Model the fold of this input.
Amino acid sequence: MAVNKMEKMTIIAAAEREEAILQAVQGMQAIEIKDFFHSNVDSSYLEKHFSTTFLETEESKKKHFQALLTEIQDSLTFIERFSESTSKKKSIKRQIRTLHSLEQDFDEQIIRKYLKEIISLKSKLTLIETTRKDLLSKEKWLARWQYLDIIPKENSSESTDILLGSISSASQIDFLADLECLSSVYVEEIYQSQNHVYYSLIYLRSQLADLDKITSRYSFNQFEYPYDILPNEAYQKNKEELASLVKEEQQLKSNLASYRNHLAEIYLAEEMTYAFINREEAKKHLLNTSYFFIMQGWIPVDEKQQLSTAIQRVLPKEEVYIAFDEPTNDEIQADIPVKLKNNSLVAPFEMLTEMYSLPKYDEIDPTPIMTPFYMVFFGMMVADIGYGLLMLFGAFLALKLMVLPRGIKRFADFFLILSFPTIVWGFIYGSIFGATLPKVFLGIDLPFPILSTTEDVNTILILSVIFGFVQLLTGLMVNGIELTKRKRYLESISESFAWQGLLVGILIVVVGMLIFSNDGLVTAGIIVAAISALSIVIVPVIQSKSKVKGFAKGLYGLYGLTGYIGDLVSYTRLMALGISGGSIAAAFNMLVAFMPPVARFTVGIVLIIALHALNLFLSLLSAYVHGARLQYVEFFGKFYTGGGRAFKPLKTEEKYVNIEKTKVEE
Done:
């Protein structure tokens, strides 16, 4: 259980077999395509004999599928936006499919037919939307002029004309007073809003200049009446057009809602289109000629037989050449991807390692070593039987009743496993939803709590530090073993084993003085610590050409003991978070208990559920974050570097379905 061993795969086959082989490789989801032109393969022979047959990568198919993907996504967004009010919302239920079955069900002609019809409906609805906005604007304008009982253009004469417009309500009195100076002007108020007054003015053309002076003075906003019918008739006609438009829109939305019956097909078409795009993208990394193609990639060693069998299912053995090579040192250092391989108990905790950094290919995977510590720490920080049971049943039901996306499934597995140490520590602390377990049940004396969060605080604090001490020693041990494997023996002493000796020596001294009061133990501890400290100082002197610099380096290294003290103090958060979470839960229970009976069994039930849900969320979040911090800072820093590149096999997006890895009989 460590970093999965990789080999370099090379496939050579006829050019017309490229699509079938890529489909088989994508169905396996276990091969990362390697760029042939950036590999360390000697391609001089190919360049010499086949340079005239090299083919440029075709981008047309990729662009075709990208355009199809855009149309599908636009159509899905459009359906969700416009048809949800007329049809019950219906989304695709996540399912498990193989790539082969998904591709068999994909019919591009049918999908394009749906898309064409949806796009046509979209265009019509867009036109209706634009027209409605225009009609609403006209309705608002006509509503102000509907009481005008003439058609302005039909009531003008050689000597008279009609002027329509509005002014600010604040200027109304002054405006009317100035118009009275023009005796030939007839003024009719048509409409008055909160801020404006609308007028119809009939005037003599000979007085237009005088009228212009007045209208300009009061910023008279002139309107041109555009209709050949009376405003009231135009207003009613406009309302009828709006009503007709609403009916047409409802009919179109009803037609659009019928496409919800095809949503599953369109969703799966989007999934398949992603697969096609990824496959076309992979072709850029191949060597293509008019006669054959060469594919190279990284494959886990335990997938080799599966690959051979999968390819032989799509073409005869004699038509394809498959070779596997061990990675070179240069490839290990600069190119090879990393895939972790752990059992079902440890695998969910890989996400913690990935969040920090994947190990390098030739580095140890810290996940199996970290997992038991994280489980203990998480359980110690949440430490409640009730919360643990909620985690257990919630995760279990989610895993059994739903097909979850792989990332969410890993989280569900993660919390399912962590529910058990949470329950165990809940029994140790004697806590269930913040309440204390009974000490006597059916006349039987129960041992709970084994550790009381109120009376045994110092014991829990010491236990937290002991757990941290054990984890630090484990990290140093792993570092020493890894350095020894690399034949860096002196470094393994100064950076690992000597530090273990120093810490153990100090522990023996403390135990001998505070617990056993034994001078022999104290002396033994001092000797072990002194020898270890001397090793930490002496090894750099041996390794360095300048003994003075080596001695200074050794003394500086020994100063790192203060860092270990700080690390041990960090583990006290195990005690602090465990006690605080339980205390908050108990406080919530007390708050509801103080309520009158009527309130306690009505509002109190809702309140206690809400408060415990909040405390559960905060407890899980704190335990998750602080548990990870202890691993990253205090533990990983002792032996782990990281910096590996994640393994990225040719696969699908798995946006709506989980693609089951193709399994073939060996």
